[in-house]
């Protein structure tokens, strides 16, 4: 995490915010695919609602990540004269947000990939490429979130990092399995 040069205490976007924004974009693509699939697929209305909910949650995570980052920056600044285990105890609650929010982003990205897979298979075939792109974007966001968790843990072992890695690999595999454009 880059902490130098932050002149204000306002939330600023960081890597997790970028990943959440990518999930929001992928979900918006899926909203379009679902809306334009209502004539051909009975499940399209439910898919529209699900994509919309995913997008809104991703947008919330953009802000949540920025806030958790700033809380962490403040905690590190407050603990600058504290060392060792006391320092880690002091910043641990703030560090938790820099793990938990990206994990939520990874989970949401995986849900987005699942919906993209469903829409690629059942939605308007003319928009299959959009569903595939949404899956690819969401899988990339899951990978970003997993990597961010590893960085924010500073090498510490934590089950959340392993979970995020599993989520990212599964999302990437599912997105890749959608195949080249035009192949069903």
Overview of the molecule:
76% of the residues lie in helices and 0% in strands. The chain is built from 5 helices and no strands. Helix 1 runs parallel beside helix 3, helix 2 runs antiparallel to helix 3 and helix 4 runs antiparallel to helix 5. The longest helix is centred in the middle third of the chain and has 39 residues. It is elongated and about 65 Å long.
User: What sort of overall outline do the alpha carbons produce when their principal axes are compared?
Assistant: elongated
Structural class: mainly alpha
Low-confidence stretches: 1-7
Counting H and I runs of at least 4 residues, what is the number of helices?
5
N-to-C SSE string, H for helix and E for strand: HHHHH
Strand content: under 5%
Q: Radius of gyration, Cα only, in angstroms?
A: 18 Å
**Biggest sheet layout:** none
The quaternary state of the protein chains shown equals: single chain
Number of strands: 0
Q: Tell me the helix content.
A: over 70%
State mean pLDDT (0 to 100 scale). 91
Terminal Cα separation, in Å? 41 Å
Secondary-structure map with pairings?
Layout: H1 15-35, H2 44-78, H3 84-122, H4 128-152, H5 159-177
What features would you highlight for this structure?
5 helices, mainly alpha
Give a quick rundown of the structure.
By secondary structure, the chain is an all-alpha fold. 76% of the residues lie in helices and 0% in strands. The protein is built from five helices and no strands.
């Amino acid at each position: 995490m880059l902490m130098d040069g932050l002149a204000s205490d306002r939330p600023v976007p960081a890597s997790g915010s970028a990943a959440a924004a990518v999930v929001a974009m992928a979900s918006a693509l899926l909203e379009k695919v679902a809306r334009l699939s209502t004539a051909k697929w009975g499940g399209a209305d439910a898919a529209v609602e699900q994509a919309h909910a995913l997008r809104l949650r991703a947008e919330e995570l953009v802000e949540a990540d920025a806030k958790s980052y700033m809380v962490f920056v403040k905690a590190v600044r407050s603990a600058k004269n504290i060392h060792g285990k006391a320092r880690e105890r002091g910043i641990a609650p703030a560090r938790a947000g820099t793990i938990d929010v990206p994990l939520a982003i990874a989970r949401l990205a995986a849900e987005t990939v699942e919906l993209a897979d469903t829409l690629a298979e059942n939605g308007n075939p003319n928009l299959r490429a959009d569903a595939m792109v949404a899956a690819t974007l969401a899988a990339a966001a899951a990978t970003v979130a997993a990597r961010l968790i590893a960085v924010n843990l500073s090498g510490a072992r934590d089950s959340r990092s392993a979970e995020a890695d599993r989520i990212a690999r599964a999302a990437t595999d599912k997105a890749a399995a959608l195949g080249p454009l035009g192949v069903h």
